[in-house]
Amino acid sequence: MKRPALFLDRDGTINEQMGYINHVRRFVVLPRVAEAVRLLNSNGFLAIVVSNQSGAARGYFPPSLIDTMHELLNTALMRRQARLDGIFYCPHHPRGIVPELSVDCDCRKPRTGLIAQACSRFDIDMSHSYVVGDRCLDIELAHRCGIDGVLVKTGYGRGEVEYVLPSRAEKPLYIAEDLHDAVLWILEKEKPGFAQ
Predict the structure, then answer these.
(1) CA distances for 102 relative to 11, 21, 88, 94, angstroms
(2) Is this structure's pTM higher than 0.85?
(3) What confidence tens digit (pLDDT) does each residue in 25-64 have?
(4) Range of the domain at 175
């Protein structure tokens, strides 16, 4: 049976935005993220991360560090009874310095390749799915996929709302304080009176 998904940006939405996170000690999960993911788990939504990680192509850290970060993230969430269903990321950049990663790919957001990968692995009800992120490119990704986007004010979000969003054609359906607020708003819209 098809299930709706929240396609979640990582840096600035799930963890603190610190530019290129090149060490495990710089990976800090934001407050209320575990609670937000747990709400998705208990209300039938897939929680799927879609993230650009071009630092690998730029030579700032090895690709293996991305996997290490995601293991840390999964462990931190599981300790709080929360679970990500999938993590899809793009390690590429067309102007990178690592030859095998220096490509013009279809998975670098706002291109739709990461969501296509998720759809090939999961049976997703796209008509009730959303993209949630702290950048206008996340909202552009949502529009390219024909779904709604929610912009969070964490990470780059506040600056994007004030300085970037006014000139963008693609607008978010909702501007949330953080991921938890976004999830509450989406669940109320999709499942009025849902159980918290």
Answers:
(1) 21, 19, 18, 5
(2) yes
(3) 999 999 999 999 999 999 999 999 999 999 999 999 999 9
(4) 5-190
